[in-house]
Design a protein that fits this description.
CATH topology of the largest domain: Rossmann fold
Structural class: alpha/beta
CATH class of the largest domain: Alpha Beta
CATH architecture of the largest domain: 3-Layer(aba) Sandwich
Helix content: 25-40%
Strand order of the largest sheet: 1-2-4-3-5
Order of helices and strands: HEEEHEHEHHHEHEE
Strand content: 15-25%
Shape: globular
Length: about 220
């Protein structure tokens, strides 16, 4: 059921477990630990089949590798997926999260998790009872609390209103950063315009995380 997906994936490690008490599948995708421990949220979701849940874990862990690298964080990419028949609550939810925490702890820090779809800071507190590799705990437990309470930086559109001459933040890495050095290592060049990008193939367009405006191209020589 999972063999074809795993063979086609370029990540480092996949951990999976069937949780009999809840009939849930647990998937942890560790795509890369090149820059540091893999990091990414854990989501709880109902899927049509376990292979769809695995596909999510693989796809999202791969995306987290790029996301963390572009943010300049010393972290790799990972993702946790709990594929459940229905979203649990109460004691059933707590017990499921504790068993998941045991699985996380068995990785000895290879993967660090946080909130994602259908999980919240209170869930991270539960996981932290048995696992030390947890971000996003409640403020009462010494964490940063819910994500929506963190300071929000004005987006490009608001910045334009305040100062028309101000440059929109770009997804292109700053020269000399860890990300740029990593690109150079693999023979990847960074272009500043669409015109320059036509010299390279294939290319993938990078867009600002806060706007849909074109901000750069990455291509292999």
């Amino acid at each position: 059921m999972f063999e074809d997906q795993l063979r086609a994936w370029d990540g480092e490690e996949v951990v999976l477990r069937f949780d009999a008490p809840s009939a849930a599948w647990m998937f942890i995708g560790v795509h890369s630990t090149v820059l540091g421990p893999a990091a990414g949220g854990t989501r709880i979701k109902s899927y049509g089949s376990p292979d769809l849940a695995l596909a999510d874990a693989l796809r999202l862990s791969t995306a987290m590798t790029s996301k963390n690298a572009m943010a300049g964080l010393p972290l790799g990419g990972g993702k946790g997926v709990l594929a459940v028949p229905e979203i649990p609550s109460g004691d059933a939810r707590r017990e499921l999260l504790l068993r998941y925490a045991d699985l996380l702890e068995s990785l000895h820090g290879t993967y660090r998790t946080a909130c994602d779809m259908n999980t919240r800071s209170e869930d991270m507190d539960v996981i932290a009872e048995r696992c030390s590799s947890v971000f996003g705990r409640t403020e009462a437990a010494g964490g940063s609390g819910p994500r929506h309470r963190l300071p929000v930086r004005p987006g490009p559109h608001e910045q334009r209103k305040r100062s028309p001459a101000r440059k929109v933040p770009s997804a292109i890495p700053v020269p000399g950063t860890q990300l740029e050095r990593l690109f150079e290592r693999f023979g990847v060049v960074i272009c500043k315009s669409r015109q320059d990008a036509h010299r390279f193939s294939p290319c993938s367009f990078l867009r600002s995380s806060a706007a849909s405006t074109f901000s750069g191209v990455i291509g292999r020589v």
